[in-house]
Amino acid sequence: QVAFVESGGGLVQPGGSLRLSCAASGSIFRFYAMGWYRQAPGKQRELVARVSSGTTTNYADSVKGRFTVSRDNAKNTVYLQMNSLKPEDTAVYYCNVVPATAGWGQGTQVTVSS
Length: 114
Description:
single chain; mainly beta; 6-stranded mixed sheet; 4-stranded antiparallel sheet; 0% helix
């Protein structure tokens, strides 16, 4: 069983940056592909960034070139560096395995607004 605790969200102005962290429990973390998902009000949860069990990364078109996902298997942690943030990035951000078969954490709120 794997569980996740997300952190690092907040209020930021358009064009700003945030770095999200996700701490995962469970000794088998390193074997899973991990993803960052987000859910905006009134919208379905979507996968925005994925990192394989190694270093291969994939991004949704909406965040490509602005977001960078990485992982530290020694710390059981996955990160999301978000630059050039836009108001449409406002959402609750979650991490989970890919596909999302584990339970969801509480997420971390990201609000991009002037």
